[in-house]
Design goal:
328 residues, Alpha-Beta Plaits, five-stranded mixed beta sheet, 10 helices, 11 strands, elongated
């Protein structure tokens, strides 16, 4: 048996999956309708909408199986998310990767598998729409087209959920999406004995940009700031707009010193943008940093509160950027 490889963008993929807040949720008719349709159209006993997290594949919708999840290391869907198109095994017993797989030799007795990766808007493959038969078979061109069409619908339904967690203007996470994703990342870092730092950004004199140049230009400033965050911070970091001109970034595996260095580098990127853009105003910000040690039991809402307080204290004291660090 071959264990699925790990996608190159695994951290981004898992962060996207967590931000949707779909794992371990109740069944929904919009997904159940798809699996019922897939079962009927392809005349198979099993159809699933499967989402792949760190250690398992979890079924948002299932027809023909009682289990809600299986281990990722024996999953077919773990293989399917590695490619761009349909992943099809006509006869598992003739494929050395799967012939001795427990899902083949035991329940549900998979002989045929077809999985279509389900992508989000950022390209992350979160799971699959898959159909399974207990007899060998294949799909013809017309069936493949139908399979892709059903997967497109599943992708649209997943995106609809996630869009509730995305800031419409800047296209980065909003407060809801950030809280969900960040708490999961904090827990993961705690298990690995790693610190995390949260940076709270408040744009300075943003109201004057709106007043002098108009709200449209103010929106462009917010979009530019979010874009600079996305380009400067790592894929494993989580950036969000949580208020009108307030942004945050959770730096995974970063202690106090590293967080200050990252903010200093980011400030340089913002200053470079100001010089090139020459919009008649400067995008400037005040930051507050709070660092949580491993196993401190820190909650994201507490870190947000403390980093916000640190930021406002810096504004009050008018200190140099990056000098005020509060530890949780």
């Amino acid at each position: 048996m071959k264990t699925p490889d790990t996608p190159e963008n695994e951290i981004q993929r898992l962060n996207t999956l967590r931000s949707i807040d779909i794992l371990d949720t109740d069944p929904e008719e919009r997904f159940d309708r798809l699996t019922r349709l897939a079962k009927r159209v392809f005349d198979v006993p099993i159809a699933l909408v499967s989402l792949v997290d760190e250690n398992r594949q979890w079924f948002k919708s299932r027809v023909g199986v009682d289990a809600r999840e299986t281990r990722r290391d024996i999953s077919f869907c773990g293989h399917a998310i590695l490619g761009d198109g349909p992943f099809i095994i006509d006869d598992t017993l003739q494929d050395e990767r799967f012939a001795d797989n427990p899902l083949v030799t035991g329940e549900p007795g998979i002989r045929f598998y077809a999985g279509m990766p389900l992508r989000y808007l950022n390209g992350a493959k979160l799971g699959t729409l898959c159909i399974i038969d207990r007899e060998p078979r294949s799909l013809d061109d017309e069936e493949l087209t139908m399979f892709r069409d059903l997967a497109d619908i599943a992708e649209s339904e997943i995106s609809a959920i996630h869009l509730a967690s995305i800031d419409e203007l800047t296209r980065i996470s909003n407060r809801r999406g950030f809280v969900i994703t960040a708490q999961n990342s904090i827990s993961l870092c705690a298990r690995q004995g790693l610190p995390v730092s949260l940076v709270y950004f408040d744009l300075d004199k943003f109201k004057s940009i709106n007043d002098r140049y108009g709200h449209s230009e103010g929106d462009q400033a917010l979009i530019a700031f979010a874009d600079l965050m996305s380009k400067t911070f790592r894929e494993s970091d989580i950036c969000a707009r949580i208020g009108g001109d307030e942004f945050v970034a959770l730096l995974t595996g970063a202690g106090e010193t590293r967080a200050v260095e990252v903010v200093k580098r980011f400030r340089g990127q913002v200053e470079a943008f100001n010089a090139l853009a020459d919009r008649g105003y400067q995008i400037k910000f005040t930051d507050g940093i709070v660092t949580a040690r491993p196993h401190s039991g820190s909650k994201i809402r507490d870190l947000l509160r403390d980093a916000d307080a640190a930021m406002y204290e810096k504004k009050r004291r008018n200190q140099a950027p990056g000098e005020f660090v509060q530890e949780a």
